[in-house]
């Protein structure tokens, strides 16, 4: 009995060690914050268009298609890096790509899109960052995958890389 | 032996922290005229994690997102929202992670009570060990 009790701290220590080793080994980024909006309806919001002089009312203007919502800015280097992948998404017929231009100068955005190509069906302006907060964004770029019923299925915090591009494509096939 | 001077020096340096005001990043233009509301805004901000520099509250952080959140909190207070409504606005969008003090829920029970559990184990082992050495 006495000896058994003395083993207890060792067992607890080993359990803690195992837990930490497991967390080190699995593929995760401890800095990444899980989105609270997964499997929830997209937030209601209004925004001005970059190219049109009218208001866009979300989610009223959905067309029962899969939507990719991409928060971007011209001052954000990773946004430039992921731009090619966002363009690839826009070439797929079943996807509508919507860009939300975060705290940016519209003139610079127009120039940026003219230079790099415009993959967005709509470009909306978020001058104050309020729309980003509605979506739980904490740093750009961020990309959300929304199914045809307006339910958020995935959030990518940080740029879309080759690996993430493949992951999102698989997800799109699943939810189609 | 540790000298008395050394102990006094440690006490002196540790007590400095007690008499300093914690720094905060609220800009003058953010501060509300109503002092009661401003105090509530400061308390809520102190309990809200900055998601950019994750070990700071939005009250201390200089990041633009922290500033935006501070402004939204103050706007909601002016609209007459209560503290719970503001906290749920924040957690609806950013999850419980945004709270520096997580609420007591089924999935946070271990977080709240495991330290006490380990303390009990520690106390039990000390008590048991003492009893044994007395006998010897």
SSE blueprint and pairings:
The complex is a heterodimer of chains A (about 180) and B (about 140).
Chain A lengths: L1 H24 L19 E5 L5 E4 L7 E7 L4 H14 L4 E8 L3 H11 L5 E5 L3 H5 L7 E5 L5 E6 L4 H14 L1
Parallel strand pairs in A: 3-4, 4-5
Antiparallel strand pairs in A: 1-2, 1-5, 3-6, 6-7
Chain B lengths: L3 H13 L18 H12 L17 H15 L4 H12 L14 H27 L1
Characterise this structure.
- By secondary structure, chain A is an alpha/beta fold.
- Chain A is elongated.
- Helix content of chain A is 39%, strand content 23%.
- The longest helix of chain A is centred in the N-terminal third of the chain and has 24 residues, at 2-25.
- Chain A has a seven-stranded mixed β-sheet.
- Chain A has helices at 2-25, 77-90, 106-116, 130-134, 162-175, and strands at 45-49, 55-58, 66-72, 95-102, 122-126, 142-146, 152-157.
- In chain A, helix 2 (77-90) links the parallel strand 3 and strand 4.
- Chain A has one domain (35-175): Glutaredoxin (3-Layer(aba) Sandwich).
- With 136 residues, chain B is an all-alpha fold.
- Chain B folds into two domains: 25-103, Helicase, Ruva Protein, domain 3, CATH 1.10.8; 104-136.
- Chain B contains five helices and no strands.
- Chain B has helices at residues 4-16, 35-46, 64-78, 83-94, 109-135.
- In chain B, helix 2 (35-46) packs across helix 3.
- The mean pLDDT of chain B is 87.
- Classes of the chains: A alpha/beta (176), B mainly alpha (136).
- Chain A binds chain B through residues 2, 5-6, 8-9, 12, 31, 33-37, 103, 128-130, 133-136, 138-139, and chain B through 51-52, 54, 64-65, 68-69, 72, 91-95, 97, 118, 121, 125, 128, 132.
| Level-2 CATH architecture of chain A | 3-Layer(aba) Sandwich
Poorly predicted runs of chain A are none
Instruction: Kindly name the structural category of chain B.
Output: mainly alpha
- SS strand fraction of chain A: 15-25%
Instruction: Determine the structural class of chain A based on helices, strands and strand pairing.
Output: alpha/beta
